[in-house]
Structures are given as structure tokens and as C-alpha cells.
Amino acid sequence: MAVPGDADGVDPRALEELVVRERPKLFYTVPTFQNPTGRTLPAERRAAVAQVAARCGVWIVEDDPYGELRYDGERVPWIASCPGAEDRTVLLGSFSKVMAPGLRLGWLRAPAALRRACAVAKQAADLHTPTVNQLAAARYLTGLDTHVARVRDVYRERRDAMLAGLADALPDGSTWNRPEGGMFVWARLPESYDTTALLPEVVRHDVAYVPGAPFYAGEPDRSTLRLCFVTQTPEEIGEGLRRLGDGLGTGVSPTRSARPAG
Length: 262
Prior knowledge:
The protein is an alpha+beta fold. The chain has helices spanning 12-22, 43-56, 112-126, 131-140, 144-169, 195-203, 234-249, 254-257; strands spanning 5-6, 9-10, 26-29, 59-63, 89-94, 106-109, 175-176, 184-188, 210-211, 224-228. It has a four-stranded mixed beta sheet, with no helix packed on it. It has a four-stranded antiparallel beta sheet with strand order 7-8-10-9. The protein has a two-stranded antiparallel sheet with strand order 1-2. Helix 1 (12-22) runs parallel beside helix 2 (43-56), helix 5 (144-169) packs parallel to helix 7 and helix 6 (195-203) packs across helix 7. The protein is globular and about 55 Å long.
């Protein structure tokens, strides 16, 4: 079930109401540069979430695959470091976003009493992460900070290129966020647009996005879409946005692409 929130992320009061009513065992969250919206939960809300966990006895699974990819602003402390969350938070990280996408290697930080159960669950899932992968990652760690700094500079430029071109690419009345980090821009077109219905027309222009509807746990906003800016150069992003604008402006009209009644 989803927890209500706003442009700053999850609402701690709504979280507590839901926990009291539904009694879930854990709360899963990506509080930093969340996928797909790119939102980052402010420090005061993180502290409030930690207090909800302490009062209600719920575990927190804090997933942080994008936290190292910050381009603006100050780093926000993990929820796991907030008072009340220290002994009931499982913190997850990944090398796939900052080291090598094909490595599929991550890490877990949890209270000592829980780590044995996590190890057993891991063994049941896939027996063992390949030793060669682990050794390669361990060797690369010595230069990882330098590598990540270079990656941040490259990704910042690509993010800025995408943000600079969106006004010309998207229909009038569209809105989008300006993420301080991560990999994605979240956009909302005028409500008459259905981005799932429009995707085939856009693909015919040799460009694509991810429709927003599959990201919703409840009733989706079908006018939303996710754009990834990290895999292409600024020049390629500019060309992609030009093609996106052509795809959104031709073929299926906004009226015919709206969600059918019923």
C-alpha cells in the first residue's frame, strides 16, 4: 500500500495513521532522489519518520541507490542515522549506479540481530554473489570516490541539458521537477494527455520515455512520464527532446489519447 505524500515526499503523519490502522511490518522507502520522481525527503521529515517507527514498532527499509549522485545542495542524513531509527532500519545501497551497471552488486547495513536472517534469505534467493564480482568491486573501491566525482560532473551536465530543452519539447501547461541528483526527471503533461497511449507514436520518432502510470500503487495519473538523462550526451539529449516534441505534437491528438471512460 502507498503512503500519501507531496512534492517533498512521504507525509509522516499520514504514515503514522496508516501504520496504526493497517499494522504493516515494514515501511519501504527511497528517500533520496526517489525513482521515478527524483524527490528527496527533507531532514525534518526523516526525523519524523524515524519517530513514527520508534512509536509504532515498524521496521524501515531505506533504499539508497542514488544518494552518491548529488549535483546540487547539501547531503541529507540517512533516516537510519536519526534517533529512534538506529535499531529498526535496514539500509540498502548499490554499486550498479555508481560503479558498473552490469555488476549487480549491493550492500546492506542492519542491526546485528537481523543480519543472520538477512544472510539466510540471501542464500535462499541465489546461494551466493559471484566471488569474482565481489573481488572486482573491492579492488575498485580504492578509487571509487574519484570515479564518482567524475560521474557527478558528467551527469550534472546531462541533467542541465535535459532541463534546458523541456520547455520546447513538452506541450504548453506541462510541469516537471528539477532534481538535485539521481537519474530522472518527472514530468506531468496537461490532464488530457495519456502518456501510455502516446508512447507508440513517440517511439515511431525513435525516442522513448517511461509512462508514469505503472509507478502508481493506486489510481494512476496517466499524464505523467519519467525521463532518464544519464545515458546520453547533451547533444543526444537535445536531439531526443526534439524528437519527443515531434512525437507529442503529431499523430494521436490529446483528446483521442485521453483515458477512455469506464
